[in-house]
Amino acid sequence: EDFEKVIARGKEGTYYIDDGNELEFFEIIDLVKPDVIFTGPRVGELVKKLHIPYVNGHGYHNGPYMGFEGFINLARDMYNAVHNPLRHLAAVDIRDKSQTTPVIVRGAA
C-alpha cells in the first residue's frame, strides 16, 4: 500500500525499484545517467565500480541531513563526492603503460 502511494505521487517517467538486484540497478543507471547518487552502502559499492559519485545516506558520518544544517551537510557531502580527485584516478588501469596517470593539483593559484 505504501509503495502504491509513492507511485501515485511520482511524475511520469519516474523509475521505481523495490528491493532491486544489481542487474536492475545497472539498467536504471544506464537509462538515467546520473551525476551523483544518494544511496546506502550496498548500492554505493556498486556505484564505485562505475565511477559515479555517491553519498551514503545511511552513514551519518558527517552529521544528519535534517533541517537547515542538515541541508548544508548534504550539500557539502555531495560536493565532496563529485569533486573527489580519487574518483578520476579510479578509471586508470595502472597495468596499461600507454595510459598516463592524471595529475591533480589542489590549491594551486
TrEMBL record:
Domain of life: Bacteria
SUPFAM superfamilies named among the record's database cross-references: Helical backbone' metal receptor
Gene: vnfD
Upper classification of the organism: Bacteria, Pseudomonadati, Pseudomonadota, Gammaproteobacteria, Pseudomonadales
Nitrogenase/oxidoreductase component domain mapped to chain residues: 11-82
Record-given protein name: Dinitrogenase 2 alpha subunit
Recorded GO MF terms: iron-sulfur cluster binding; nitrogenase activity
Pfam families for this protein: Oxidored_nitro (PF00148)
Organism per entry: Azorhizophilus paspali
